[in-house]
Known about the structure:
By secondary structure, this protein is of the alpha/beta class.
Amino acid sequence: MIGFADEALIEVRSGNGGNGCVAFRREKYIPHGGPNGGDGGKGGDVVFCVKRNLRTLAKIRQRHCFKAKNGGDGQGWNRYGADGEDVVIPVPPGTTISDAETGEIIYDFSSAKQDDQFIYLKGGNGGWGNVHFKTSTNQAPRQANPGQPGETRFLKLELSIMADVGLVGFPNAGKSSLLTYFTNARPKIAPYPFTTIIPNLGVLRIDDETDIIIADIPGIIEGASEGLGLGDTFLKHITRTSCLIFMIDCSDDNYLTTYETLCNELANYSDELLEKPRIVLCNKIDMEGACERACEVAEKIRKEEPDTVVIPVSVLTGRGMKEAQKNIIDLVNKFEHRNSEQEPEEEAFGSSFMKDRAYIDDDDENIQYPGMEN
């Protein structure tokens, strides 16, 4: 699985604020010029942003630590220190940020309605210079505030690929061949199990303005939800899909129990997966006896799930593929239409999430920082 990374543990640090300066005006003929020490600069923030052309977390996992720059110290002549540079961490769409220790979700970039940028940690404020402490009774203050320290957090980043349709099936059911048939993707195809070892994405073009993204994950085997095979590792990548396509190999001897086994594995992993709209494709009907088997599978599924569409297809010869494409498009359109009628939910994460997470130092109750005048 070289080149693919869907999880990363990182350390992030916001910058320290710069120290305030103690300085006095010294000029010829002005013996008592008074204080003119400037304020320290603000430390840099930790910022996450979505980068649409990223597909994995590989670059982030290689770096480990992301640190914003510290603010500059104040100087004489009321010169303020420079603000520290922010550290911007680009992530692919579908990334979830959570606390590495508690598992609490901090932000989720899977929703297109949310902002593409999220400021997680604020840099420390700069300390006041002695110019702020001048009073009628203390005209030469030798006091300045230190900069406010930044914060350090350990985070876990998880990626769930964003797709409209997810392909579900046993190894060698024909998922990669279907992806190749419908889309511009060219996954590896070979006559042995687990040819696909990383998720693949393909785009099904409908017209000049509309397309559907299809995700192919490694084949599921019985016990995948408990960690067998590769299914447990990649099942999360279809949790964000709108719809599912079940691929059943009708040339396999266990063709009648395949659908039930797949449903059980999805249910064991997440109940939400079974609630997704679905289509069942009975593949390889070009092989001897497979067409009759496909009819048996369709009859069995329709008895238990009358609303589930079952289509016999042959990806190799193209038989039934036009009907399958039409049903896939209709399924996605129905799902999007249903979601558009629902009222948008209030954002669970974002800037409000950090309101009660401001830095507080019990030892510095009397220290003021720039921006606290009011």
